[in-house]
């Protein structure tokens, strides 16, 4: 069960503040070394000389798929060439529910929090958004259905069809459409 008002908390309240940034001209080998040293799975990439203005993100997965699997040398490739960009970000005043929904819809696991002047102030991960605690273990079905029920009816978490009416109708829809043997 989601704690009361948790989904309405501001992203700034759950964002991790110990993120790492590097300029876009950093060698991938340096990015990998810093990931290991800082024990992080991603680094936010900034414009050269602007340490807080993010332009992309590079993850361990990016290094494996875009450098190693393509036989590119990590001492020759720069972060700007293999980072995920354009960077999807969120405003610090957005809700936790908005962050989780955005990550789900964009199929991302990390979401930089960027203030009104374009500077990164934190990073939200699925782990930080749900608190990594059993009491905060948020099921995406709960997020979608709680928001949708209050606004337009119910939203099927499997096929995203809007079901107008009571919660019983969504249960019937799931049973009839998605729970067939």
Explain the layout of strands and helices.
Elements: H1 11-14, E1 21-23, H2 28-38, E2 42-46, E3 54-59, H3 60-68, H4 79-82, H5 96-106, E4 110-114, E5 120-125, H6 126-129, H7 140-151, E6 154-155, E7 162-163, H8 167-178
Parallel strand pairs: 1-2
Antiparallel strand pairs: 2-3, 4-5, 6-7
How would you describe what is shown here?
- The structure is a single chain.
- The chain is an alpha+beta fold and 181 residues long.
- It has 2 domains: 6-129, CBS-domain (Roll), CATH 3.10.580; 139-178, no CATH class.
- It has 8 helices and 7 strands.
- The protein has helices spanning 11-14, 28-38, 60-68, 79-82, 96-106, 126-129, 140-151, 167-178; strands at residues 21-23, 42-46, 54-59, 110-114, 120-125, 154-155, 162-163.
- It has a 3-stranded mixed beta sheet. A two-stranded antiparallel ribbon has the order 4-5. Strands 6-7 form a two-stranded antiparallel sheet.
- A hairpin with a 5-residue loop joins strand 4 (110-114) and strand 5.
């Amino acid at each position: 069960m989601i704690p009361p008002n948790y989904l309405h908390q501001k992203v700034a309240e759950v964002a991790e503040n110990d993120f790492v940034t590097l300029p876009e001209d950093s060698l991938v080998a340096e990015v990998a070394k810093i990931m290991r040293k800082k024990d992080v799975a991603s680094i936010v990439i900034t414009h050269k000389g602007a340490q807080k203005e993010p332009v992309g993100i590079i993850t361990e997965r990016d290094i494996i798929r875009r450098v190693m699997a393509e036989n590119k040398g990590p001492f020759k490739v720069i972060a700007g060439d293999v980072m995920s960009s354009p960077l999807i970000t969120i405003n610090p005043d957005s809700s936790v529910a908005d962050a989780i929904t955005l990550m789900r819809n964009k199929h991302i696991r990390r979401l930089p929090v960027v203030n009104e002047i374009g500077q990164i102030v934190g990073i939200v991960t699925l782990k930080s958004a749900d608190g990594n605690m059993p009491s905060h273990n948020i099921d995406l079905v709960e997020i979608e259905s709680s928001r949708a029920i209050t606004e337009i009816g119910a939203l099927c978490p499997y096929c995203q069809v809007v079901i107008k009416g009571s919660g019983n109708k969504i249960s019937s829809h799931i049973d009839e459409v998605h729970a067939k043997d």
